[in-house]
Amino acid sequence: MGASESKKAIKPELSQKQIEYLKMRTRMTEEEIQKWFHGFYKDCPDGLLTQKQFIHMYKQAFPEGDVTQYAKRVFVTFDKDNSGKIDFNEFLLAMDLMEKGNLEEKLRYAFELYDVDKNGILTRIEIETIIRMVLSLRGEANNDRLKDDIMKHLNGFIAKFDENNDMKISQDEFCRICSQDDYLREFLSPNFSS
Ligand SMILES: [Ca+2]
Ligand SMILES: [Ca+2]
């Protein structure tokens, strides 16, 4: 029969329909889509990226740090349909944002990444969690001086936007804060290119 054999031998290919869809949803050319597609299938032959693989990728990019928590957050944010796996469409939308997104888009995405309970507001606890997570990612979990420095920066900016000082930041405020402060932006913006 050989049915399963021939199934295995099929080289994955994008359908024209999927290409059109991805061209519409991203700023990628067909050539770029194909390139990402082949890279993606090399790592994920079944077309799905698992959380375990994803964490592994992060470990390679940040060998010094403890990436697990951060990578898990990124994974959940990319996994738009909450299937527990990242398919190629989800992957490409993420790459489009990272490679071609403007600052505003990236900051909006960063906000989603950090707004763990998805209520549209970053609280002080969430912010402290973020800072700890990013420090761990960089292998500086115990760098209290850096943490204090960032909190000081952030507090200074919050004071401008947050009149009653309860330190609840909306998405708009977050974008405004980060776009006005290079130091915070660099710290808080997720960066995949390294
Ligand atoms: Ca998914
Ligand atoms: Ca929240």
Structure, explained:
The protein is mostly helical and 194 residues long. The protein has helices at residues 3-9, 16-25, 30-43, 51-61, 68-78, 88-100, 103-114, 124-137, 144-161, 171-180, 182-188, and strands at 48-49, 86-87, 121-122, 169-170. It has two domains: 17-100, Recoverin, domain 1, CATH 1.10.238.10; 103-188, Recoverin, domain 1. α10 (171-180) crosses α11 (182-188). It starts with a helix and ends in a 6-residue tail after the last helix. It binds calcium ion (CA) (2 copies). One calcium ion binds at residues 79, 81, 83, 85-87, 90.
Low-pLDDT windows of residues: none
Topology-level CATH name of the largest domain: Recoverin, domain 1
In spatial order, strands of the major sheet run 1-2
* CATH H-level superfamily title of the largest domain: EF-hand
Structural class: mainly alpha
Helix content: 55-70%
Bound compounds, each kind once, are: calcium ion
**Mean pLDDT score:** 87
The total of beta strands comes to 4
Portion in beta strands = under 5%
Q: Which architecture of the largest domain does the CATH hierarchy give at level 2?
A: Orthogonal Bundle
Radius of gyration: 19 Å
Family: Belongs to the recoverin family.
Protein name: EF-hand domain-containing protein
Domain EF-hand: 66-101, 102-137, 149-184
InterPro entries: EF-hand-dom_pair, EF_Hand_1_Ca_BS, EF_hand_dom, Recoverin
